[in-house]
Design a protein that fits this description.
Elements lengths: L9 H9 L3 E6 L35 H16 L3 E6 L9 H12 L4 E8 L6 H12 L3 E9 L3 H6 L6 H13 L3 E8 L6 H13 L4 E6 L2 E2 L3 H7 L8 H14 L5 E4 L9 E3 L6 H14 L4
Parallel strand pairs: 1-2, 2-3, 3-4, 4-5, 5-6, 6-8
Antiparallel strand pairs: 7-9
């Protein structure tokens, strides 16, 4: 299976640009979120338990330690020789600019780290932060701003307690592009109240607003979240692998050739995951996407 026959994957794009295999190393820089510290809300999004996808969500080692350990693991498993420091946990642009600068530059000083990928919310990207990231890009570093849109439906965003609307995303990406930054937009397939067509339209909207990349994964219902309670009450309809594969392949087919896909599926910590169980079988999902792209004609 070679998905790059049909998809401009992040790995393919980075190899073409840097001449070697480049891989992200996830780190937790001990940031928080305005949807947790009572600035906008408490408890976070109804689907969020950061420990479900970030091994360093609790008692994180130093940035240096995380990068050193991550490089060793990723370099061995993925045969990567260059790395991007992925500030993944919570909202990694939420803080004093001087503090952000200190943590970003600590990562950039690490040997073989060629850049930053910074995960955040659309309501947490002031111009001062965008200017800082643009400066790193001007210095020759690979820089990606990863905006968590998740849904382009304001009512769905309200129901999951997201704390921002679609207009906020449109403003954030417009300003990010004015600074010349590369933007990756995150979308979740299977949110309550979200139709498959709405997710496909959300991907098209992100592309229309000049998002350079897309990151897609199925809704994970994990322990310790409001959605876990909703699942128990039968309020969250199950998302099948077949439904997920259909949505993802349709998004791929409508995307321009230059669109970079940072992720086509995702897994969660198996000790925390409640549903859907199939998302743990990453390669089964990717193989199904490949098979659909290879054998089923576009409609």
């Amino acid at each position: 299976m070679d998905l790059t026959r049909y998809v401009n994957t992040f790995g393919k794009a980075m190899r073409q640009k840097h001449g070697c295999k480049v891989h992200k190393v996830s780190i937790n820089a001990a940031f928080t979120c305005p949807n947790r510290d009572a600035t906008k809300g408490i408890g976070g999004c109804t689907f969020c338990n950061n420990a479900s996808f970030n091994v360093n969500a609790q008692n994180a080692p130093t940035i240096d330690q995380q990068l050193c350990e991550g490089k060793a693991v990723v370099g061995r498993k993925k045969n990567a020789s260059k790395f991007i420091a992925y500030f993944q946990a919570y909202t990694s642009t939420y803080g004093d600019v001087a503090l952000l600068e200190q943590r970003y530059e600590q990562a950039l000083r690490t040997p073989d780290v060629v850049g930053l990928s910074v995960g955040t919310r659309p309501d947490c990207v002031p111009d001062e932060v965008l200017r800082l990231l643009a400066r790193y890009q001007e210095q020759g570093h690979e820089v990606w701003l990863e905006l968590g849109l998740q849904s382009a439906n304001d009512e769905v965003l309200r129901q999951v307690n997201r704390g921002h609307d679609v207009a906020c995303y449109k403003d954030a990406i417009k300003r990010a592009k004015s600074f010349g930054l590369q933007v990756c937009t995150h979308l979740i397939v299977g949110l309550p109240g979200e139709t498959p067509e709405a997710t496909i339209d959300a991907a098209a909207m992100a592309t229309d607003h000049n998002s350079d990349g897309l990151k897609i994964h199925p809704l994970h219902v994990v322990k310790g979240t409001q959605m876990a309670r909703q699942l128990k009450l039968g309020e969250i309809p199950p998302l099948s692998q077949e439904q997920y594969v259909d949505v993802v392949t349709r998004i791929i087919r409508q995307a321009p050739d230059e669109q970079t896909f940072h992720r086509l599926t995702g897994t969660a910590n198996e000790q925390l995951l409640l549903a859907p169980g199939w998302c743990q079988r990453k390669w089964s999902v990717l193989n199904a996407i490949y098979h659909r792209l290879a054998t089923c004609p576009a409609t």
